[in-house]
Amino acid sequence: MAKNVLGTELLSCSTDPVTGFYRDGCCNTGADDAGVHVVCSRVTAEFLEFSKAKGNDLSTPMPQYGFAGLKPGDQWCLCAARWKEALDADAAPAVVLEATHAAMLEWATLDELKAHAV
Q1: Residue 9: C-alpha distances to residues 2, 3, 4, 73, 91 (Å)
Q2: What is the residue extent of each domain of the chain?
Q3: From 21, 58, 86, 112, which residue has the greatest number of CB atoms within 10 Å?
Q4: Contact, 69 vs 60, CB < 8 A?
Q5: Is the Cα torsion angle 16, 17, 22, 26 positive or negative in sign?
């Protein structure tokens, strides 16, 4: 059973929209998840613009991939490195600690995550 950054059972991040590398609603990760999609974030307009400027447009719909595009307030499993990059640029979105995979602790401290907790 996967654990969250608090050491308890990993909870679902979002099923509307359905998120997660495995599209199971959870920020699970595995050997095939090169992006390490482990941070359950509540995205903001500022973060969506930041991510788009970095080459990952999360707000534009891509129906060919079944992706409706994110809007502020949506919860989404973000890549660990992108969240940390946003943190360093003062653009990090809020984090749902109970739904953020323990693997995120390799990228950010629990204190950094708690400072952005929902």
Answers
A1: 6, 5, 6, 24, 28
A2: 1-118
A3: 86
A4: yes
A5: negative
Question: Exposed, middle or buried by CB within 10 Å (0-12, 13-18, 19+), for 68?
Answer: middle
3-state secondary structure 2-50: CEECCCCECCCCCECCECCCCCCCCCCCCCCCCCCEEEEEECCHHHHHH
Burial (CB count <10 Å: 0-12, 13-18, 19+), residue 57: middle
Whole-prediction pTM value? 0.94
Can you tell me which residue has the tokens 């929902």? Answer: 118
Residue 80 contacts residue 38 (beta carbons within 8 Å):
yes
- CATH (one of 3.30.56.110, 3.10.450.10, 3.40.50.970, 3.40.640.10) for 1-118: 3.30.56.110
